[in-house]
Amino acid sequence: MFAGVYLLSHGVIKVFLVESLLRRRLWAYPTGIVFFALFIVYQMYGYYLHPSIEMLVLSILDLIVIVLTWLEYRQLKRAHHPA
Prior knowledge:
elongated; single chain
């Protein structure tokens, strides 16, 4: 039951954030990074308690999303505030 609720909340939050990112809302970039990082922290806690390859894969995917989100955020901020 817990896993289902966790995955559903994970999915709902990600869909909301991805929709906001697609609309290039600047607030969504740092918000998304924070939420994805929190998911990774929780997933690593879960991995510590019950090691599984699935949890590692999910965490690696979230880390990739964080890096891509950060890179796009930097690029978008530069476009809005040229030096």
